[in-house]
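Q: Could you fold this chain for me?
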Amino acid sequence: MREGYEGTGPGAITPDGCAVELYTRLPVGDEPDIITAAVPAGARILELGSGVGRITHPLLERGFTVTAVDESAEMLERISGARTIRSPIEDLDLGETFDVVMLASFLVHSGDIEVRRGLLRTCVRHVAEDGCVLIQREGEDYHKNLPRERVDPSGFTVRMLSAEPVGDGVNSVLAEYVFPDATWTQRFLARPLTRDQFEDALAAAGLRVDRYLTEDGVWVRALPAPGEAFGPSGV
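A: Sure. Below is the predicted structure, expressed as structure tokens.
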């Protein structure tokens, strides 16, 4: 298990504390609608951190071609109909570009700044010159007003139990997912980013925000910044 990450509950647990069976149960939500509205029909999508294909499969049904990347073999085994690649995202170099590169699951909030830089470099490395990068951010109150819980219409409860500072602007976050027949927990490290800090991090990687796709600012469409090279960032 990666330091600072932990998961409990039935079934396989990935190095970052994600439970494979849990992710097969989570509902799709409105992500496919948001993505479809932001990209060209039939686009070639590189999905970084695909997990079990919760978003992958709806995108395939809508006519997109998806290459799904995850470092967990157990996660990728649950995906059908897409090209799958097992690799850490920050190490990925396929030697090809895509119409759309997608970095969801709040991965941009990695507690390790160097990992975040690697994730964004991978996005830039694989996006076509006229393509776009879709990034999912944490909500503004993600680390606030804890503990809190939400009961999903499908019958399970998500509890955000705590977000404790562990130094250098990073929080240790504990979440719990309670189903009628099973309970999972996940502890992970996350770095809150203001909108300005987020945009600075993108700029350092050679990306610029095109527009925020949702009113809460969680989903963002970014474009390669012409003429900008990678640069250092203290964010």
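A (continued): Confidence is low (pLDDT under 50) at residues 228-235.
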